[in-house]
Every structure is written in structure tokens, then in C-alpha cells.
From TrEMBL:
Part of the multisubunit transport protein particle (TRAPP) complex. The heterodimer TRAPPC6B-TRAPPC3 interacts with TRAPPC1 likely providing a core for TRAPP complex formation. The keyword Endoplasmic reticulum applies. This is Trafficking protein particle complex subunit. CDD domains: TRAPPC1_MUM2 (cd14855). PANTHER family: TRAFFICKING PROTEIN PARTICLE COMPLEX SUBUNIT, TRAFFICKING PROTEIN PARTICLE COMPLEX SUBUNIT 1. Its main location: endoplasmic reticulum. One of its GO terms (cellular component) is Golgi apparatus. May play a role in vesicular transport from endoplasmic reticulum to Golgi. It is found in: Endoplasmic reticulum; Golgi apparatus, cis-Golgi network.
Length: 168
């Protein structure tokens, strides 16, 4: 069995039982501002709900990210130039991207999805900047209300090579 470096302070094993080649998908996506306010939430193939309000879920997600980033920066034996990138459980993989302005984009996917840093960067640079930052009707720091942004984001996610609407 081989190992590879992951973005969360360690290594991941993969071998003949890995999910490479299996149906993969995107479960959900969060966009937070620098203060922890959830600006956008999108859901595609989420199988289980949290059992709490969305506002509580957003607070828990942001708090977990804050703690993991802090833990990794303090405990990592290596220079954390890229910082925290991914977090993996036995059921899903969380991909994380933070901009210089403090916008945080989080995407939960199936385990087989490779590092999505470039995809999250594309969401920021081609969708968020174009349809939110450059839109005079959108107030930065408030929940995103652009139907055009939501539609384009949905089309972008559905066009990803690893997106499958039927993945388990």
C-alpha cells in the first residue's frame, strides 16, 4: 500500500481498495466572508442532513475550519505555505480555499475526488469576482442574492469531471 501527502498535516493511504474509478460527486459548497458569515450555500448530493438549523451548521463549519487551520499552523513540522487544503473522514472529503481578502470556499465531496484547490480558485476568480465583486447591485459582506451567480455556479459544479448526480 502506498501513501501520499495530504493537505492536513499528514499522509493518506491508498491502494487497491481506494475509490479511484468509482462514482464521485460534490455534496455541498459554502462561501464564508472573513468574519465567518455564510455568504452562499449550495447543495447537490447531500445524503444526510445535520439535524440543526442552517445557521447553526454554518457556525459549526466555520468554527471547525478556524480550529483546524490554527491546529495545522501550530503543529505542522513543515512550513505551511499553502496552509490547510483538505480534511478527510471515512465518508467525505472537505476541500478548502482561502483568498487574500479572507473569502473562504469550502466544498464537500466524495472521497475519490482529488485535491480541488484549482477548482475552488476558479469558482472564486471566474464566478465570485465576475458576478459578485464586479456587480454594483451586490453588497459585499452580505448574503449573495445573485441568481446569475447561483445558476453559473450550479452549471460549473455539474460540469466538473467528477460530478455524478447518482453517486452514493
Amino acid at each position: 500500500m502506498a501513501t501520499r501527502r495530504t493537505g492536513l498535516c499528514g499522509y493518506q493511504r491508498y491502494g487497491r481498495n481506494s475509490r479511484v474509478g468509482a462514482l464521485m460527486t460534490v455534496h455541498n459548497l459554502y462561501i464564508f466572508d472573513r468574519n465567518g458569515s455564510c455568504l452562499h450555500y449550495g447543495e447537490w448530493n447531500r445524503k444526510k442532513q445535520a439535524g440543526i438549523s442552517k445557521e447553526e451548521e454554518f457556525k459549526l463549519m466555520y468554527g471547525m475550519l478556524f480550529s483546524i487551520r490554527s491546529f495545522c499552523s501550530k503543529m505542522s513540522p513543515l512550513d505551511m505555505k499553502d496552509g490547510f487544503l483538505t480534511f478527510q473522514t471515512s465518508k467525505y472529503k472537505l476541500h478548502y480555499y482561502e483568498t487574500a481578502t479572507g473569502i473562504k470556499i469550502i466544498m464537500n465531496t466524495d472521497l475519490g475526488v482529488p485535491n480541488a484547490k484549482d477548482i475552488l480558485h476558479q469558482i472564486y476568480s471566474t464566478l465570485y469576482v465576475e458576478y459578485i465583486v464586479k456587480n454594483p447591485l451586490c453588497v459585499l459582506g452580505e448574503q449573495l442574492s445573485s441568481d446569475l451567480f447561483s445558476t453559473r455556479l450550479d452549471l460549473y459544479i455539474r460540469a466538473l469531471p467528477f460530478f455524478s448526480p447518482r453517486a452514493a
